[in-house]
Amino acid sequence: MSGTRRVRITSPQTRIALARRHRPAQHLLPPTIPGADDRDSTDAVRALFARQRRQAARTLALLGAVLFGLSGLLAAAPALSHVTLLGVPLSWLLLMGGSYPVLLLIAVRHVRRAEALERAAGARDGAARADERGTDLAP
Fold first, then answer.
1. What is the per-residue burial (b if ≥16 Cβ within 10 Å, else e) of 12-49?
2. With a threshold of 0.90, does the pTM exceed it?
3. For site-directed labelling of 76, which of 12, 26, 29, 105 has its Cα 20 to 30 A away?
């Protein structure tokens, strides 16, 4: 056998990914808001993230109920495949014409609620800052 030593060659992306594995997942933590009271702002951001995660869990549950419910309905009522409207089976119309608008409504509802949570957190934060300064938010 020759006396040469084998060298492992990896791409830069692989080296970065391997190095990243040993550090805590910083991307899962909310960013801190620099200011006079970093601890309170960080706690407020974490509380907002927790509320948004709960909202996301409710949205996923609703999404699962709609998708599995529709699948269950079609499995429980196979006669829907035999009923046609304008030459198209009713089961197909339910899947294509019924599920996508409902999914769109769920998505719009989720985005609006997440934005409302952010606005509410911003209003609370602004009111707390105004109370600290002794000023009123009203113009």
1. eeeeeeeeeeeeeeeeeebeeeeeeeeeebbebbeebe
2. no
3. 105
